[in-house]
Specification:
single chain; 314 residues; alpha/beta; D-Maltodextrin-Binding Protein, domain 2; 2 domains; seven-stranded mixed beta sheet; five-stranded mixed beta sheet; 10 helices; 15 strands; 34% helix; 22% strand
Amino acid sequence: MSGMGKWKIVFAAGVAAITLLAAGCGQGGTASDSKLSGEVLIDGSSTVFPITEAVAEEFQKNNPRVRVTVGVSGTGGGFKKFSRGEIDIADASRPIKDKEKAAAQENNIEYIELPVAYDGISVLVNPSNDWVDHLTIDELKKIWEPGSKVKRWSDVRPNWPDTEIKLFGPGADSGTFDYFTEEVVGKAQASRSDYSASEDDNVLVQGISGEKGALGYMGYSYYVENKDKLKVVPSDGGKGPVTPSNDTIENGKYSPLSRPLFIYVRTDSLKKPEIREFVKFYLTKGPRLAEEVGYIPLPQERYSEDLKKVEAVK
């Protein structure tokens, strides 16, 4: 995690929340003359977390009196807090669901949806796996669907070794889990339950890298960050195997596992100067920072449209 010497890590209620506290002046620089002060509360997707964390760090270099807290309770967990009015911004790796919209409406929470980057869910195995060249979407469904009888790699293809498959994936509160199950299995949240689940992608990285027969999935940036510990598997959605990359995710060839990532912002929070400026900063600096942490920026005109959305909230 970049710049950790400057920031304090706070762990609360089993959820790792990164509270970014400016340490007075920037390292080797002078104190900002920004008059902004206050707090920005963010929670949600572990997939969107690296972008939001990077934006928050950069923002606080210029605005040291603003405290930005970024939680990682999963997309579903973030939306629960968001719909109760407990946070200002929800990080999300999928669009908001109807039941989440209804919960927000019940509490008079109005919001705007802002896409911030593209991601490609990456299918991953242990680096020592030398037999998997690719997996079709049908094979992934056979492995992950509820009631799956697949226990060993030879159950997927007979010529593969009789090695036990150890499965790792996001938990039920994860937007990545929702998206993967809908696109692969055919129904959101339809999945076998006998796998090691975690809302923290770093835990999944450790699991896959520690088991020879492992198979798992997570956001593209975590693969990029851990290429020495993981091996990516090309997936075949019907047009031949495609490996996730900046190009294949952006141009849609990595289908059906490419998707947009979002932040959701409460409109009443946007009336606070520190939050309005943070969101504008996110949409201005976010494209560069998203790329730096392993995601694919949207077309520039999309960020311009999003900025107009923010400016329209009076």
